[in-house]
């Protein structure tokens, strides 16, 4: 005799009489220590049939569809059990956001989505709980599968190189070249030292064309080292091998060949999608409120610092070193170094993004305490190489996630106790 039977509910009438038992639902599948009810299967089938009608898709017969639905619900139940095991909880705020997103994707308001759900024979409360279960299962799957994924830096570098080669197929570079030749009267180490010194001067702002006229022994020395516009496949191999994802203004080298040392400059690039970000160099003073020092007291202290700085009585650096309660930056005269504003908390981010260079903010509060901040400089920094590596990582992660998610679900299914309850078994 089976342990699980139909779930029978009775209703007590106000007069004290007991109504006849009415079967409202029954267990359809046992999954470990949980169950799938017949109503779960009916709801899922209604949802699929409704979606198929809306999209104009043909669906299989009811019996085939039911088998598919049952298997899907078994997997969902197992994932839900894993979600419960690791403590995943989807609160109403998160659920409401997800439902609002579903409505937006359907070009509907939430009210319209609710009405369309009910028009298909589903209650809105059932729909909400179905979405809650799916979100919890998804979070559990993501958390548990991520632990199985290992991506090596060498894998990222290799794929990033392949992506850059594909990207570079149509890219044109305007190349400058300086060649320092080996000679009988100079030791090769001397030539290398001279090349390193030239690179240092170029990175410090020396004019590349003038340096090429003066020092280069290459074939384009009298053109200021200018090789003009070329695709990588048109360049000398020694050039092409050195150009990866460098961008306009990059100095490459020195690198060695059989005849000497070479220095390249990418004067310009055409056809390469670049990723540039703004970095801000700022400094700040942090005062943290305490039981003794109130918010008003911290704000007043910072206002006094601003007055003293503007009056020339003290410098920002001196006050930061002496008073700031951010030890890391206080040791650097309050400086935070060049950073992208996204790294900061919202209130601080707003200040460093909007303050003019050289301006000191009014005191403002963040989760860390009260601050004044001064923007020292802004600069545009190329992040194309980092972006390409990030893209490579995302591709590798998605590939491995899909592989591991499939394996994880198969293992979960294989190790589970699953019993389809016989409809005809009344015992």
TrEMBL record:
Keywords: Chaperone, Isomerase, Periplasm, Repeat, Rotamase, Signal. Residues 170-268, 277-377 form the PpiC domain. SUPFAM superfamilies: FKBP-like, Triger factor/SurA peptide-binding domain-like. Residues 1-19 form the signal peptide. Pfam families: Rotamase, Rotamase_3, SurA_N. It comes from the Bacteria. Chaperone involved in the correct folding and assembly of outer membrane proteins. Recognizes specific patterns of aromatic residues and the orientation of their side chains, which are found more frequently in integral outer membrane proteins. May act in both early periplasmic and late outer membrane-associated steps of protein maturation. The lineage of its organism: Bacteria, Pseudomonadati, Pseudomonadota, Gammaproteobacteria, Vibrionales. This is Chaperone SurA. It is found in: Periplasm. Its EC number is 5.2.1.8. It comes from Vibrio alfacsensis. The PPIase activity resides only in the second parvulin domain. The N-terminal region and the C-terminal tail are necessary and sufficient for the chaperone activity of SurA. The PPIase activity is dispensable for SurA to function as a chaperone. The N-terminal region and the C-terminal tail are also required for porin recognition. Its main location: periplasm. It catalyses: [protein]-peptidylproline (omega=180) = [protein]-peptidylproline (omega=0). One of its GO terms (molecular function) is isomerase activity.
């Amino acid at each position: 005799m089976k342990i699980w039977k139909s779930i029978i509910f009775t209703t007590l009438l106000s007069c004290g009489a007991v109504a006849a038992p009415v079967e409202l639902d029954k267990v359809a599948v046992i999954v470990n220590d949980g169950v799938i009810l017949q109503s779960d299967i009916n709801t899922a089938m209604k949802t699929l049939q409704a979606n198929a009608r809306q999209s104009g898709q043909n669906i299989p017969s009811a019996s085939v569809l039911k088998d598919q639905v049952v298997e899907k619900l078994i997997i969902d139940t197992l994932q839900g059990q894993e979600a419960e095991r690791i403590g995943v909880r989807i609160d109403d705020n998160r659920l409401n956001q997800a439902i609002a997103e579903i409505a937006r994707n359907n070009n509907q308001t939430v009210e319209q989505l609710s009405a369309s759900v009910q028009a298909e024979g589903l209650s809105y409360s059932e729909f909400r709980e179905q979405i809650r279960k799916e979100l919890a299962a998804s979070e559990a799957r993501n958390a548990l599968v991520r632990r199985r994924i290992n991506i090596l830096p060498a894998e990222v570098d290799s794929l990033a190189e392949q992506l850059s080669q594909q990207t570079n197929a149509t890219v044109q570079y305007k190349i400058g070249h300086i060649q320092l030749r080996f000679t009988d009267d100079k030791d090769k180490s001397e030539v290398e030292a001279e090349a390193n010194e030239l690179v240092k001067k170029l990175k410090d702002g020396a004019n590349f064309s003038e340096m090429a006229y003066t020092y280069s022994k290459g074939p384009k020395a009298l053109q200021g080292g200018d090789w003009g516009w070329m695709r990588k496949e048109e360049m000398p191999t020694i050039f092409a091998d050195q150009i990866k994802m460098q961008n306009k203004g990059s100095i490459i080298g020195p690198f060695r060949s059989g005849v000497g040392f070479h220095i390249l400059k990418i004067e310009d690039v055409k056809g390469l999608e670049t990723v540039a970000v703004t970095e801000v160099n700022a400094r700040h003073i942090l005062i943290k409120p305490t039981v003794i020092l109130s918010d008003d007291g911290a704000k007043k202290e910072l206002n006094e610092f601003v007055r003293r700085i503007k009056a020339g009585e003290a410098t920002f650096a001196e006050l930061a070193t002496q008073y700031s309660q951010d030890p890391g930056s206080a040791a650097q005269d309050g400086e935070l170094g060049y950073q992208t504003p996204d790294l900061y908390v919202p209130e601080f981010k707003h200040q460093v993004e909007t303050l003019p260079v050289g301006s000191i903010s009014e005191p403002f509060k963040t989760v860390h305490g009260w601050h004044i901040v001064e923007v020292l400089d802004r600069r545009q920094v190329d992040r194309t190489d980092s972006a390409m590596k990030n893209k490579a990582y995302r591709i590798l992660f998605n590939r491995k996630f899909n592989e591991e998610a499939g394996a994880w679900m198969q293992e979960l299914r294989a190790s589970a106790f699953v019993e389809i309850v016989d409809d005809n078994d009344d015992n």
